[in-house]
Automatic annotation (TrEMBL):
The keyword Iron does not apply. Catalyzes the decarboxylation of 3-oxo-tetronate 4-phosphate to dihydroxyacetone phosphate (DHAP) and CO(2). It holds the Pfam family Aldolase_II. The lineage of its organism: Bacteria, Pseudomonadati, Pseudomonadota, Alphaproteobacteria, Hyphomicrobiales. It catalyses: 3-dehydro-4-O-phospho-L-erythronate + H(+) = dihydroxyacetone phosphate + CO2; 3-dehydro-4-O-phospho-D-erythronate + H(+) = dihydroxyacetone phosphate + CO2. Its cofactor is Zn(2+). It comes from the Bacteria. One of its GO terms (molecular function) is metal ion binding. Residues 10-189 form the Class II aldolase/adducin N-terminal domain. Its EC number is 4.1.1.104. GO terms for biological process: pentose catabolic process. InterPro entries: Aldolase_class_II_sugar_metab, Aldolase_II/adducin_N, Aldolase_II/adducin_N_sf, OtnC. This is 3-oxo-tetronate 4-phosphate decarboxylase.
């Protein structure tokens, strides 16, 4: 096992425990992954709790999905692979069932290309536009194509009646973006029907100019 792989396995354990302790993950729901330099993917095992991961049991799969080492991967590993195929710069993915983000995914929205208003600067910078994908049952392989299509334009997306998928250039970046999404969803529900003042088109454009990379 390379030093890189060992380090990333330990990092998945640490961040899994962190997300579990912050109650963004519960039971055996949700999954994390990272892409190694050789193209292989480390992904949390099926039916595992993110709060109690073991480094050596984390699944290692080939880009084509074959298990290379560790326990059998999450049944949702296929949509991680779809995101990685479409986003070469992505090195990590976070998919959880956190309360406010899932609640957002259950609402009826007037438009599905961006379902979270631009309420804060950090929401815009770390999440950006958040499309809502239609409902698929857990494990349905047809979801991979819907995720793949959305990943061409977005690093974050919301699965209807399910939860978000967020990709990043590092595991830290993906986790921070996910946390920002959950907090923005929380603000959205706290505001409720009150008249809010989302960021203007000009403010969003200024953020994109100042912080795009």
């Amino acid at each position: 096992m390379s030093d890189e792989e060992r380090e990333q396995r330990e990092k998945l354990v640490r961040f899994g425990a962190l997300l579990y302790e912050r109650r963004l993950a519960h039971g055996s729901a949700g999954n994390l992954s990272v892409r190694l330099g050789d193209g292989a993917i480390l992904v949390t095992p099926t039916n595992s709790s993110l709060g109690f991961l073991e480094p050596d049991r984390i699944s290692k799969v080939a880009p084509t999905g074959e298990l290379l080492a560790g326990d059998p991967p999450s049944k949702e590993a296929f949509f991680h692979l779809a995101v990685y195929e479409e986003r070469p710069a992505a090195k990590a993915i976070v998919h959880l069932h956190s309360t406010h983000a899932v609640a957002l995914s259950c609402l009826c929205h007037e438009r599905d290309d961006d379902v979270l208003p631009p309420l804060t600067a950090y929401g815009v910078m770390r999440v950006g536009r958040l499309p809502l994908l239609r409902y698929f049952r857990p494990g349905d392989r047809a979801l991979a194509e819907a995720v793949r299509e959305a990943a061409k334009r977005h690093h974050a997306m919301l699965l209807a009646n399910h939860g978000p998928i967020v990709a990043g250039r590092t595991l830290e970046e993906a986790v921070h973006a996910y946390e920002e999404l959950e907090e923005t969803a929380k603000v959205f529900f706290l505001l409720g029907e009150r008249k809010a003042s989302p960021l203007s088109f000009e403010a969003i454009a200024e953020l994109n100019r100042a912080f795009s990379s």
